[in-house]
Amino acid sequence: MKKAIIVAAALIMGLNGLSAQQVRFFAHRGGRKEFEENTLKTFKECNAKGMNGFETDVRITSDGQFVISHDANLKRMFDADVIIEDHTLKELKSYRTKEGNEIMTLDELLDFLKDKKGLYVEFEMKTTDVEAYPQEKLEKYCDKLYKAVMKAKPADATYLFTSFDIRALRYMTNKYPEGDYLLIVGEPVSGKVIALASALNVKRIGCTIDGTSRAAVAEAHKAGLVVSLWPGNSPADFMLGVSLGADYLCSDVPMAVLDWIKQTPWIDVVY
């Protein structure tokens, strides 16, 4: 499968005595430290250079349209003190980033991805602000997002719904148990995180690389969980994640990691 990373036995045994494992890495917000994050141009450029694994962030406008943005406020990316949830799509489309890009809609991203092979995409539900997303609005958001993403999903793609928001994950796993979900936490893999994921009926966890131990990853695997680690700011972070036994690795610098892997004879990259 394109973008799967096959880590050779010699590497793993040299690092930690384990047998060979398969790890997949993916671009955080399209590769936010190498490109202008979460823009259509970024996803196109990153994909053209070999990446078919992505993470992105989904918010909803005041007129019920999904847009791609990590931040609720456009200030950091667009230099405009504007809250996404308080404005219409038409209003938001009038702003431009420092590189001249407009805010991307979910439909635009899904349309770009529709003919790509071997995709792995995480759609993060940015609903943790209870005031912006009270329960009734949250449920409508989840229903609409699930239907839009799954309708556009290529047959061979892995599309995940992820969040820090326990409310969103609980609603989604109850309403759409057939979906694929990941619990994100800003802490290392631990027994507490494993227990929370199990309680939510979520089969994947996204935890911080720093502080995570091999023993904790092994415990998560024993509990039947898939482990994804973040953030990845360098090839060294990628290798740390591999040595910890992670299944998935999120990277802010996917091109640097790809270049490093291609120059490393004991790692086989399958596109």
Radius of gyration, in Å, reads: 18 Å
**Main sheet: strands, sense, barrel:** 8 strands, parallel, barrel
Name the beta content range. 15-25%
Shape: globular
Q: Please give the share of residues in helix.
A: 25-40%
Outline of this structure?
This protein has helices at 9-16, 40-48, 75-78, 89-92, 106-113, 135-152, 166-175, 191-200, 214-222, 235-244, 254-262; strands at residues 4-7, 21-28, 53-60, 66-68, 104-105, 120-125, 158-163, 181-184, 204-208, 226-230, 248-251, 267-270. The protein is an alpha/beta fold and 271 residues long. The longest helix has 18 residues, at 135-152.
Question: Could you please describe the fold and organization of this structure?
Answer:
This protein is an alpha/beta fold. 37% of the residues lie in helices and 22% in strands. It has helices at 9-16, 40-48, 75-78, 89-92, 106-113, 135-152, 166-175, 191-200, 214-222, 235-244, 254-262, and strands spanning 4-7, 21-28, 53-60, 66-68, 104-105, 120-125, 158-163, 181-184, 204-208, 226-230, 248-251, 267-270. It has an 8-stranded parallel beta barrel, surrounded by 6 helices. Strand 2, helix 2 (40-48) and strand 3 (53-60) form a beta-alpha-beta unit. It is globular. Mean pLDDT is 91; it is low at 1-19.
